Amino acid sequence: PAVAASSEAEEIEVLDSEDVLPMAAEDHWKALFDQFDPDNTGYISTEKFRSLLQRHGSELDPHKLEVLLALADSNSEGRICYQDFINLMSNKRSNSFRQAILQGNRRLCSKALLEETGLSLSQRLIRHVAYETLPREIDRKWYYDSYTCCPPPWFMITITIVAFFLYNGVVLDRFVLQVSHPLYLKNALVYHPQLRAQAWRYLTYIFMHAGIEHLGLNVVLQLLVGVPLEMVHGAARISFVYVAGVVAGSLAVSVADMTAPVVGSSGGVYALVSAHLANIVMNWSGMKCQFKLLRMAVALICMSFEFGRAVWLRFHPSAYPPCPHPSFMAHLGGVMVGITLGVIILRNYEQRLQDQTLWWIFLSIYVIFVLFAIFWNIFAYSLLDLKLPPPP
Q1: Distance of alpha carbon 353 from alpha carbon 147, whole angstroms
Q2: Closest CA to 225 of 146, 300, 175, 327
Q3: Distance of CA 388 to CAs 155, 185, 318, Å?
Q4: What is the pLDDT of residue 188?
Q5: Are residues 184 and 389 in contact, defined by beta-carbon separation less than 8 angstroms?
Q6: Gyration radius of the chain's alpha carbons
Q7: Cα distance between residue 329 and residue 349, in whole Å
Q8: Global pTM?
Q9: Taking the alpha carbons of 151, 156, 159, 164 in that order, is the dihedral positive or negative?
Q10: Which member of 2, 34, 211, 330 lies 3.0 to 4.6 Å from 249 by CB, making a disulfide possible if both were Cys?
Q11: CB of 229 closer than 8 Å to CB of 346
Q12: 1-33 pLDDT, tens per residue?
């Protein structure tokens, strides 16, 4: 709202007084904002907002000051929302604030984050992760400013280090079981078509691997791709993609390769890797990661090698006939999750997923597939009269 010139001069005098500024950071900025918003509307004009920043910008982080100045310079509505301002100050992710920043092809006025010097090792690591995973400079700077490593990327580290080895090493006294080992199918984790009624097997099969090479490739891909993605997108989003890929993988096996067991974390790993690669391809010009073409080639070669090995193993004569080797369909189930749900999650770093139409479309498709696979497992096996391998 418009304010009389005399009233505005009085407000500026009040701002100059240090006695009225609270000590708490958010209260401090709220008091400053309220001086220009006496009617408590939640908005001030961009001119007043710029005056506030000029007087007190030295108290801000340079990146945040830069973003706020860009917001003031190109705001077409001529006013600034207090909530958008305070979201940035408190490092909260805000869809509305991000949209306000990106609206109208706004351009940042200072050098790119990649050009900054004098950074510590941890700062360089965070910057590297930002450039590996995010296509927009504004997102990279936002992530660089707000990331605190609290909480750390616990999900991917836990699922990789603890879960893979706890059961094999402690219970079976063997870290990796080859498919030729007598205990390969005789445990409570592997998905087996005869034991498909035991619902936990659709998830726990990821804790068993068909040999050291199978485990090694999954661990490498999971750590190199999964940990940086979790650092940026958080454990909730990445664990959702991973678990959705795991479930889709075992259900795909139960529908398309009905007589085969399945082991390994390839469903979850391929969901993460395919989502990451698809996000890079869709934002190719914006991605500034070094050697991105070479890295994509290496990831695709590793995935192709592991998938080719799984296909070869599936049709190789079994060591324990009539039980076949593990299926490769879990890989394809993970890829489908990655290029649908995974891409939506990775593309919308700051936006709320519930606001995205494609999110609801792909989520609905996934739920329909899961329901179809459940009914298929209940009725199709008996209707088709398949000859299943004996239970382990």
Answers
A1: 20
A2: 300
A3: 36, 14, 14
A4: 80
A5: no
A6: 27
A7: 30
A8: 0.74
A9: negative
A10: 330
A11: yes
A12: 444 444 444 443 444 444 443 345 667 777 777
**pLDDT > 90? residue 365:** yes
Using alpha carbons, select from 237, 265, 227, 198 the residue that is nearest to residue 354: 237
User: Helix, strand or coil for residue 113?
Assistant: helix
Q: What single-letter amino acid sits at 168?
A: N
Identity at 346, one-letter amino acid code: L
Match 């306000």 to its residue by tokens: 100
Q: Is 110 exposed, middle or buried (0-12, 13-18, 19+ CB in 10 A)?
A: middle
Burial of 7 by CB count in 10 Å (0-12 exposed, 13-18 middle, 19+ buried)? exposed
Structural domains of the chain in order of their starting residue, each with its CATH number: 25-94 (1.10.238.10), 154-384 (1.20.1540.10)
Residue 363, burial from CB neighbour count under 10 angstroms (0-12, 13-18, 19+): middle
Tally the residues of the chain. 392
Helices vs strands, H then E, count in the chain: 18, 2
Among 210, 195, 201, smallest CA distance to 388 is for 195
Q: Which residues belong to the active site?
A: 266, 331
Cβ count within 10 A of residue 204: 20
Q: How far apart are CA 365 and CA 388, in angstroms?
A: 29
